[in-house]
Queue: 3 jobs
Job 1
Amino acid sequence: MAAESTAPRSALDGILVADVTQALSGPYLGMMLGDLGADVVKIERPDGGDQSRGWGPPFAGSESSYFMSVNRNKRSLTCNYRTPGGVDVLRRLADRADVLVTNERRESYRRRMGIDYESLAQRNPRVVYCSITGFGMTGPLAGMPGYDIVAQGMGGLMPLTGPIEAQPYRYPASIADLATALYGLGSILAALYARERTGRGQYVDLSLVESQAWWGIIQVAAYLVSDEPPAKVGNDHPSIVPYGTFKARDGYLVIACGAESLWERLCDVLEMPELRDDPRFHINRERVVRRDELREEMERRLAAHRASEWLARLKAAGIPCGPIYDIPQMLSDEHMAARGFVVEHPHPIAGMLRMLAPPLHLSETPTRCRRHAPLLGEHTDEVLGELGYLPGEIARLREEGAV
């Protein structure tokens, strides 16, 4: 008998994912499923592939860093499903898939091509079909195109972002795209779990706008209770003070006191017992309405030392605090290094590529970087062979522009 392998299995070993998406949200979701061990087949147009392959600079040779950042652990299959042969390829893949993810926004197009949920579920009742669009597949805006910034604008948070006296600010990361992918991951895993009991997959309908608006849940709840639209507070917290960025002698640091005991300890570290005893600042409710007065008092004291000195004192006292890093500083932080946050993996064009490791730490089924972000069509013949196509059939598909 062969010795049993001691290599840890991945959580989604044996799960086949058809990733029929491009840009950011869908590919990011597909990558996370791949990081968890799923076999993710990325379906791309033969004439250029995923639109993000052209987004840059920077590029490593011909390869976009943007594309490579969210497409590892996948195989690339070129497929023009506007052709009969291409539709057949996609349907064959969907027949075997556990999960299909698409960001095609028009239901009429999906039905015309026979790649809508109802059509595919008739052939494969176990498929979990995840739709990611700007506005969802119902409602008056269904079918309209939508990118992340559109969702950020409609989600209610842009007027609350940025300096207090400034225009509405877009968050620098595409948080509507990324949030939708995270909700997609949770929804798909839940649907796969439910399938274990029912034997059937289901339809998941996600929208960038709702995902973005959901991130305003605290501000929305406050408005629904008070009928008062929330005010912009910059880097401060609307309901907790002190909780934000504060200026020391040489720069800024973060201090976050979410409990009265932490506030009392902060006063001790600052050597300002008068703040703790001042009835204007005695409890959080009073501090919130006097945040500007409190900031002035705190920063007058913080100006006496460098930010690093204050951070050492605050950490010693167990007060939540931290530096404010740019990207290079974040990547060089010893804690991030200890967590293995940056990994290296070879790429046939980019060479040894550094990338962020998945932040999902599972003890028994760890995530892994198994595959580089694929070259366009790199695995087409391989996947078609697995779907039962013979070499002559593959050649005919190429001749007719189906793959």
Job 2
Amino acid sequence: MIEVDSISFAFGTQLILSKLSLRVERSEVLGILGPSGVGKTTLLRCIAGLLKPQRGDIRIDGAEPQQATKGQKVGYLFQQDSLLEWRSVLENVLLPFEAAGANAVVPENTAKAFRSLQLVGLKDEAGRFPSQLSGGMRQRVALARALAPDPSVLLLDEPFASIDLLTRERIMIEMHKILHQTQTPTILVTHHVEEAIFLSDRLVLLAGRPASIVQSWDVGLRRDRDQPLLAEPAFLHLALALKQQLRSTPEV
């Protein structure tokens, strides 16, 4: 569970987030939309413990973000896959264990890495290197790396931004299956409306300077989401309404 209670954050004298509160329940996926530069990634970094708000409180399963991150309870998937080219797929997935000071090659951690690769459909690619993979496969390896320590929460920051449209749709469908299977509380930051709707249970719009949540929506679509859903009237109607709302929200 993720609890953000009235946080404010500033870079120097510039206030980015103001009295922002949200809550993500177990198994819920929350999508965050908003203009470029509004502070979506700043919010994620605060939740991950990479930045510290000047005011307010954040709890991940009752723990402070820095404590949760140190305990490998926060999985973070960035815009770029950030894979190490000289390490195999398996060795890349084992990185979180090494970063936490653990012996990555002990059987328990290796088993977790293989389970995570199996979850994203890449167990057979464990011995390959990033340069041998497609863009979509690389991002799935990055997801496996984030999931390997069995985190309590998952933070996704524009995870498909560098992937072409057709690959994006395919991996988006795969991602939904994975999130539904793991039931990990997840926050997704994206500019892509269809992606946000497809993956999320609930959506919020972040706007203003300083930023705050100005609107929220329950997605309300069926749980078994697949390719045909992208053309269903309920999906298209919600996508149109969200795009109209975003167009009326000024850039920062």
Job 3
Amino acid sequence: MRWRLWGLTGPRITRTRTTSKTPSARAPSVALFDFGGTLDADGVHWAPRFYEAYRAAGGATDRPRFEQIFKAADQALATLPGIRSLGFRDLVEAEARLLRDLLPPDEAWEPARVAAQFHADALAVVARNRPLLERLAVRYRLGVVSNFTGNLEPCLVELDLRRYFVVAIDSAVIGVSKPDPRIFTAALARLHTSPQHAWMIGDNFDADIRPATDLGLRTCWLTPADRQAPPGVPLSARIACLLDVEAVLGRG
């Protein structure tokens, strides 16, 4: 910024005031979040959380086999009639019923019990995170970028989270899934910002952190403390609880 001082009798003097921030170096003004495993849990995907609820309900299938079956249930969920109108509770119950159809029929567990535990655990984390998101929404433009089943909007509304986010990008709606960089650039375009002025916060290293880093976003990996980061990808930050992201963003 230039200040020009005119002397009453002398020559014009021009002084230049410098600033430490240039447009390319200004602090990020946008924070993008993953949904499942990030806003509803501290870095734990849906599959292991469903597995814990399933075992607590009496299921006996080992974890590797269960996770294979969970992937098949996820694929079936995406093609379920009426999926795009389902809220969060209905989505969780539908997932549990699909697991019941695919897991061994002789196991004595009830999908309603599994869905109830998963749902209650998620609600507790979401309720804890709401005040955080409310504070962040005052300082940043927030967005959600999620590989989802076409019903991210009704799920966010049901969980009373939608009001905090300027944009919500659902992979099934736009036809592009993470780690494809186009899903991130779609969110940034709607927020009228560049990668250099945005954060990506997520729990999936390969879907959230790696592609966002490649695009030039700052990244914050939400993950349990004992999980090892893959080599070769520089992390801006790492946290084990989403509540810690406020301090990370504050440091810029």
